[in-house]
């Protein structure tokens, strides 16, 4: 018969395996190596902005690929990033890019109380070139959610260091992991734009 102590030991082993797998993913990602990217021009609330300008005074940039204003999951991720924004910005530049127009982005930003900068990739090849364009359409968008990290080199050239995709239960949204600890897990819960 399996005891509570046995299950706690099994849980601890599973946790250790998860941490080891996560570290292995980071190491493999770093071995892939940087990918040189162009200095894309996107649109922000102040007009045209180059990717190189999004770094601010930092050498590194975290760029969130957001599907747009109609995706409740992307909105949930953005809400969470707002909560840790000061911590993220202490280490790197942080921006959100979506296919929405600047006007739509700014209306959503104001409504949600987001203080991070948002940039529109509308009319550019940025989303496709970064590998975040889908053949299908969901939430009125053919963009996929995720993150790219960039480094600006001393000569001004920009390299993408890593990328990853977002999805329910991923490593980037803590809500899913807290739901996992409930008696019935997420129990069919779905993110919504309004509650």
CATH superfamily: Glutaredoxin
SS content category: alpha+beta
Q: State the total count of DSSP E strands.
A: 10
Terminal CA distance: 44 Å
CATH hierarchy: architecture: 3-Layer(aba) Sandwich
β-strand percent reads 25-35%
CATH topology: Glutaredoxin
Low-confidence stretches: none
Q: Could you name the CATH class? A: Alpha Beta
**Helical amount:** 25-40%
Task: Outline the biggest β-sheet.
Answer: 6 strands, mixed
Strand arrangement across the biggest beta sheet = 1-10-9-4-5-6
Write down the secondary-structure element order: HEEEEHHEHEHEEEEH
Number of distinct helices: 6
Q: How many structural domains does the protein architecture include?
A: 1
Task: Give a topology summary.
Layout: H1 4-32, E1 35-37, E2 41-44, E3 47-50, E4 60-65, H2 72-83, H3 85-91, E5 93-98, H4 102-112, E6 117-120, H5 126-129, E7 133-138, E8 141-143, E9 146-152, E10 158-165, H6 174-180
Parallel strand pairs: 4-5, 5-6
Antiparallel strand pairs: 1-10, 2-3, 4-9, 7-8, 9-10
Summarize the structure.
The chain has 195 residues and is of the alpha+beta class. The chain is built from 6 helices and 10 strands, in the order H-E-E-E-E-H-H-E-H-E-H-E-E-E-E-H.
């Amino acid at each position: 018969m399996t005891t509570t102590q046995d299950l706690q030991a099994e849980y601890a082993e599973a946790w250790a395996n998860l941490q080891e797998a996560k570290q292995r993913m980071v190491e493999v990602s770093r071995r892939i190596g940087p990918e040189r990217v162009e200095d894309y021009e996107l649109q922000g609330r102040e007009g045209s902005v180059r990717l190189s300008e999004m770094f601010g005074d930092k050498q590194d940039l975290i760029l969130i690929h957001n599907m747009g204003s109609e995706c409740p999951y992307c909105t949930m991720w953005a809400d969470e990033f707002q909560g840790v924004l000061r911590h993220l910005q202490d280490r790197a530049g942080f921006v959100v890019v979506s296919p929405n127009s600047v006007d739509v982005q700014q209306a959503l930003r104001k409504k949600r109380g987001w203080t991070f900068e948002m940039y529109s990739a509308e009319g550019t090849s940025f989303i496709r070139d970064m590998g975040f364009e889908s053949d299908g359409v969901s939430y009125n968008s053919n963009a996929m959610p995720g993150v790219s990290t960039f480094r600006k080199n001393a000569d001004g050239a920009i390299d993408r260091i890593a990328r990853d995709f977002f999805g329910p239960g991923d490593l980037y949204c803590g809500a899913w992991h807290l739901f996992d600890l409930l008696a019935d897990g997420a129990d069919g819960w779905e993110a919504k734009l309004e509650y």
